[in-house]
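Proteins fold reproducibly. Next comes an illustrative record:
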Amino acid sequence: MKVYRRFETLQQMSYGLATFVVVALLLESAGLEHWAERLDLGAERTIALPVANALHRALQPLRLESLRQRTLIGLARIRWSDDPEELEEAAGTPTSPGAALPALAPGTVATLAPGKAESPGRPGTTIAAPKTPPSAPLPLIEGAPPLLTPLPSIAPVEAGHTRTIALAGDSMMAVGLYASLMRESPQYKDISFIRAFKSGTGLARPEVFNWQQEYPAMLQQRHPDFVIVAIGANDGQGFVEGGVTYQFGTAGWQSIYQQRVKAYIEMLTAGGATVIWLELPPMKSPVYDARIALVNRIALTVVKSEPHAIWFSTAGIIGDSNGRFRDFGNVDGKAVKLRQGDGIHMSDEGGELLAAKLLPWLAAQAPIPPASNTAAGVKPEGTP
């Protein structure tokens, strides 16, 4: 009898577990597909991606995931979720006066002319890698960025004009920083923003999200004066270029990634904008932090070689006195949490520390010239 009851309990447990798995697959097939796409190159991704793609295609007609997504976005708006993509979608509605921001273009993989490189894991789908002159000499990779960097002098905003600022990057922009910039911006006059970021993206894997194609669509014919960039959190992984697999950190990987950062900056500045490149802050995981340190060093190398790009160090602001990861910091005499629970993204309070440096600098007004007495019909003293 005891054996039967035990078997019945195990059977019920198995049914419950199977039901949970089925429901999870029905509601999260797109998430599973995104997870598989972002896996590091290797056997795991080779097996997982075709299965996840097929499952998502089969379940799409049911439209269950759109209901789930709307529910999660609603929870993110009331702070019940800290998922970067849900927070990004929740932030899609402008929260500050006058900050009417264009919607994000959907993240799609471009299918290009025959003869281009085939997308890993997606037979028949081709992509265009960012283009840079192959003969262009690449500078040697810089050492660790400084803890703090002063912002250089820039032309002030002229009276009667508006300075337009694009906010570009991945979830490092979407979570914490974007909300802080929007919340603080109304106190500064004559600046407007363009929302041009997308969580889960980067420069290492253009077959997942091609910035060369997607960024111009995000601008929607607007022309920013400055572009604040926070990107690279997903780039500590290998990739395929020209049919060759490059493992993260190898000499070939560094060279190609350097070219991609250069192509990205050249695209951002093509219309005359100036790029402010934000250093990725120190990360909680030592292994991940070491990867991000290399990503930062390569980005610093390229930024220093570009005449219309400015490097902005964050480690001395978000990190401790040695530029290492810290969860909490003292702000105005109060201990506040600076990072999200994942040890990667910034909290709103952490984002406010950066916004407090960037916004006054970007919004500085040109001094109003004194009224001309002659123009007003009053003769200067000493004139007949």
Summary: The first helix runs from residue 2 to 27.
